[in-house]
Amino acid sequence: LQVVARSDWQRQKAFSGGHRADISASAWSHNGALLVTSGVDKSLGLWETRSQRLIKTFDDVQYPILAIGWHPTDNVLSYTNNNGELFIREDFVPQEHAKHLNIALQPAPMNNDPLSEVSGNARKQMPNGPKQGEVRRSTEDDYLDDLLGPDAMSEDGAGFIEDDDGAGYAEEPNRFGKRPAGALESRPAKRQAPVSAWQPQIHESFQPGSTPWRGNRRYLCLNLTGFVWTVNQETHHTITVEFYDRQEHRDFHFTDPFKYDKACLNRKGSLFSCPPSNYTNNRNMLYYRPHETWTARTDWRTPLPSGEEVTSMSLSESCIVVTTSTGYVRIYSLFGVPLKVYRQKSTPAVTCASWRDYVMTVGNGPVGGEGTTRLLYTIENVKREEVHQSEDILALPEGVELRSVFWSENGDPCIYDTDGVLLILLHWRTPGQAQWVPLLDTKTLERLQSGKKEENYWPVAVAGNKFHCIILKGGEEYPYFPRPLLSDFDFRIPVSDPPSANEDDDDRDAAQQKTLESQLVLASVNHSLQQDLVENTNATSAQKSELPVLEREVDKALLQLLAAECREGEERGMKALEIATLMRDRSGKMLEAAGKIAQRFQRGVLDSKIREVAERRMVGLVDEDDV
After folding, report:
1. Does residue 579 contact residue 561 with C-beta atoms inside 8 Å?
2. CATH top-level class for 217-423?
3. WDHD1/CFT4 second beta-propeller domain: from which residue to which, for each copy (predicted)?
4. pLDDT per residue over 162-216, tens digit each?
5. In this structure, are strands 269-274 and 285-290 parallel, antiparallel, or unpaired?
6. What is the pTM of this model?
7. What is the β-pairing status of strands 421-426 and 435-441?
8. What residue segments make up the domains of the chain, in order of their start?
């Protein structure tokens, strides 16, 4: 399929390799980011415009397609075949590529600068200025002449003013045969905006852990504590709360006349919010129910001001956080005492999450180059009123949306995006130093490398150095009933591509090297997270004792890398020495172990240099690379 420029009919980029027969139909998506083509051999292919890459083929077409059309806004494709049938395919673009439908208008795939090609194809203005020596007429004169029609002295019609008596009240005609008209009494106050004015695309608000309706059921909350689900009974709802640890908490079930649409659950209690209704005097309402109390049960409800709706909420062990449609962040105690109310800087609000006294809010920020707003986040300690990160940018690439926000078991912010990447925030307690580090890219899981499985993953939690999620098969995006089982995956920082099944010995050794490098980076991240916790909080003795353990894990990964370099040969000695200098242990035991590894592989020069590094550290000298 060849792209041709309209200006000079020169050949540009080409889409090749997708069909074995003639093309029968093709259509661009509404923004030009995707191209769909069909062939007379009953083939149907989906292309990415920017790279001219075939990203999906469809084998379920029974008759040749004659015409194709995209939906102007949704992920829907319609086509007709030579059998007279019309097909409407929803979710035509796979989930991992659906982000291309939400970006701004894309240029045509040209060999040269596409923007110059677009401007070159535009219709050129014809020169219509006055010739030399002519008097230029103003635009207002032409406008009034067209509005009032031809006058008496023009050649186009009879006039309505005749200067019969020579009194001179009729002005002399100009060289164009027309008399100038008087100015209008008033002009429009301001220019009217066009009907189809451009507006940026914002991220809609969502409640972490909740799913949309499917039939008459939906999940309101899913986490490691348990799950909350509701059933629509038309006149009312019924809500069920179930726990994974039924020895600690008992499941409960109640009738819901308020029709709660959001919920949070933890070990202390459950939180619900409902939309305005007759039961709530047309106001949003919060409802908190503790699991256990040492007095009588203290359920409480509190309404929000009129016209204010809950967009997201979170529940921690010490507070309740609510973001509203008016841009306010409302913080309550677990007994309903309002602690703080402030207006969020980045609006409209998207979501929020909390852990103990820490609150993380996410909102829409400035508009990016693709026409979509960038997400900004703020982290605050509401008890000490300390802002750790203020309106920092959430690290999401172009076309990728936020799927979930939550805190890890150890109290570090985590996000999960629509690309299937899990990220954790490093150094977030120091203002301006926060970094989003990828812990796992689910597209690189070994279970997906065969290409036979089509899976998505619903994020649940980060605990025990694992990613807990729900596996969604068959292209599903949300979990459904019966209650799904939880799965967990080890972290694997994407340092390189995952190893493939068909590898020779050399490739296998290289893959083992990359695995060790990934383990080193992961151990360094875990050590940095624990070090931030110990240095910035009142850490317990167990947390402090965990820090040297994680430090040894980093050094163990370095020793494994050192052994791999020594195994390769003497020419890898300089890299092996660099690895030895990265050892964090200051007692000298790890450098002594590194020297023994060099001796085992008979690397005498490397052994002597490692001894020099160890001696310099023992006497307190700084390594040359550290200066």
Report:
1. yes
2. mainly beta
3. 204-495
4. 555 555 555 566 655 666 665 555 555 555 544 556 788 899 999 999 999 988 9
5. antiparallel
6. 0.71
7. antiparallel
8. 2-114, 217-423, 508-626
